[in-house]
Amino acid sequence: MFETIIWGGAALSLIGLAGLVWCILRLVRARRANLSDDALRAAVQAVLPWNLAALFVSVIGLMMVIVGISLG
Fold it and tell me: With contact defined as beta carbons under 8 Å apart, do 27 and 44 qualify?
């Protein structure tokens, strides 16, 4: 049972990490596009909720791994 929690947490952490990489790549592309300050600010504001969600998913996954190891 606890092994399932550990692997599920690891999967969630990897999904969160993939989301963080996607956010970074999206902002790098926006920065390379030589957008104006307002357009770049809008791009950052559009990515911010996705970034926070990916970070949240990653943290939840890491907490699941820690709980699974501690209780197992």
Answer: yes
